[in-house]
């Protein structure tokens, strides 16, 4: 179903439509293994709907077609066309395999009969492991030492029987984020709560070229009664895993969008996005998102990420490649060489 491109526009989102993480993910069933988005949103700098929202909605759709004792262990997705936020996205789920321990699903997303997104995901019944290892969580200060910083401007579209209603976005879009950087320290909190270790490294400088960025993230989220809680947790993590992910590729070059110099960002867009889920977690708690970029070339940037629960468990790993075009490439480009290990903080 295609809605007319005529929409009511409000200059502010009323309190009754305050955005929460699950608001961005919930959908309506419109047929067997078919689901439709209730809302979409677009960052001001983006050409289309937020990629993390599309991936989370696709995962939610796939999760509704497997037994409740299955949870996703990995997903791999591709963004094919920008999503139009004034038209609901239709997600069609195909059953690839349903076994006793694993199940596989593919999801294809359509707008106006055009495929805009595709995902394949694997589900598993939880089992005890005979071997287990993980990276140690970076030794960083807690989220209370940093100021809220993850804010977006853009447009939110909520679908109704008469078509979409559009609202200006200027807020945290359902996720509170605090970057682990020196400039983002909360000096008032720091003065009242001295560092637990006098020599503690409080984070990298946001303005110095480097290939790493860490965020404390906390979704505005409480599972509804009757929901499969862990499935919802996984969908919420999928939603926020796209926040600032691709921007990590700009850090070694100190690139800015709309730069007044001849060298700035002209276009950024996610091309693909993959997640591997390792352990149970609660998406309503603070999590540390540890991002790094190891390569940019051919107009593309590559990012990997690790998501830790606050108690140090590595709960998910993320990988993304995206389009990264700049305003002036010049005749030749000298690559920035980066040491292959992140700073120990």
From TrEMBL:
GO terms for biological process: acyl-CoA metabolic process; fatty acid catabolic process. SUPFAM superfamilies: Thioesterase/thiol ester dehydrase-isomerase. Residues 41-124 form the Acyl-CoA thioesterase-like N-terminal HotDog domain. Keywords: Hydrolase. Pfam families: 4HBT_3, Acyl_CoA_thio. Gene3D superfamilies: Acyl-CoA thioesterase, double hotdog domain (2.40.160.210). Belongs to the C/M/P thioester hydrolase family. It comes from the Eukaryota. One of its GO terms (cellular component) is peroxisomal matrix. This is Acyl-coenzyme A thioesterase 8. It comes from Smittium mucronatum. Residues 230-323 form the Acyl-CoA thioesterase 2 C-terminal domain.
């Amino acid at each position: 179903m295609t809605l007319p491109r005529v929409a009511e526009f409000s200059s502010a989102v009323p309190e009754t439509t305050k955005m929460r993480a699950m608001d961005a993910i919930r959908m309506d069933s419109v047929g067997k293994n078919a689901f439709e988005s209730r809302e979409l949103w677009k960052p001001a700098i983006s050409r289309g709907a937020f990629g993390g929202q599309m991936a989370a909605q696709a995962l939610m759709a796939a999760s509704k077609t497997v037994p409740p004792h299955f949870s996703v262990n990995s997903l791999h997705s591709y963004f094919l066309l920008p999503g139009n936020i004034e038209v609901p996205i239709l997600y069609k789920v195909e059953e690839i395999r349903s076994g006793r321990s694993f199940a596989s699903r593919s999801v294809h997303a359509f707008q106006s009969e055009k495929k805009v997104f595709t995902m394949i995901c694997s589900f598993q019944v939880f089992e005890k492991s005979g071997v287990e290892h993980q990276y140690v969580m970076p030794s960083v200060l807690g989220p209370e030492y940093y100021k809220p910083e993850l804010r977006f401007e853009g447009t939110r579209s909520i679908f109704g029987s008469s078509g979409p209603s559009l609202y200006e976005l200027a807020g945290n879009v359902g996720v509170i984020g605090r970057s682990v950087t020196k400039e983002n320290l909360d000096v008032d909190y720091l003065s009242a709560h001295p560092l637990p270790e006098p020599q503690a490294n409080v984070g990298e400088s946001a303005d110095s070229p480097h290939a790493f960025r860490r965020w404390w993230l906390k979704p505005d989220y409480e599972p509804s009664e009757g929901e499969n809680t862990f499935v919802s947790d996984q969908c919420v993590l999928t939603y926020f895993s796209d926040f600032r992910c691709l921007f990590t590729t700009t850090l070694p070059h100190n690139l800015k969008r709309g730069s007044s110099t001849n060298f700035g960002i002209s276009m950024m867009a996610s091309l693909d996005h993959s997640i591997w889920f390792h352990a149970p977690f609660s998406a309503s708690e603070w999590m540390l998102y540890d991002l790094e970029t190891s390569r940019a070339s051919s107009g593309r940037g590559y990012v990997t990420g690790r998501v830790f629960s606050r108690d140090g468990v590595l709960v998910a790993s993320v990988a993304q490649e995206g389009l990264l075009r700049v305003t002036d490439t010049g005749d030749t480009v000298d690559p920035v060489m980066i040491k292959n290990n992140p700073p120990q903080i």
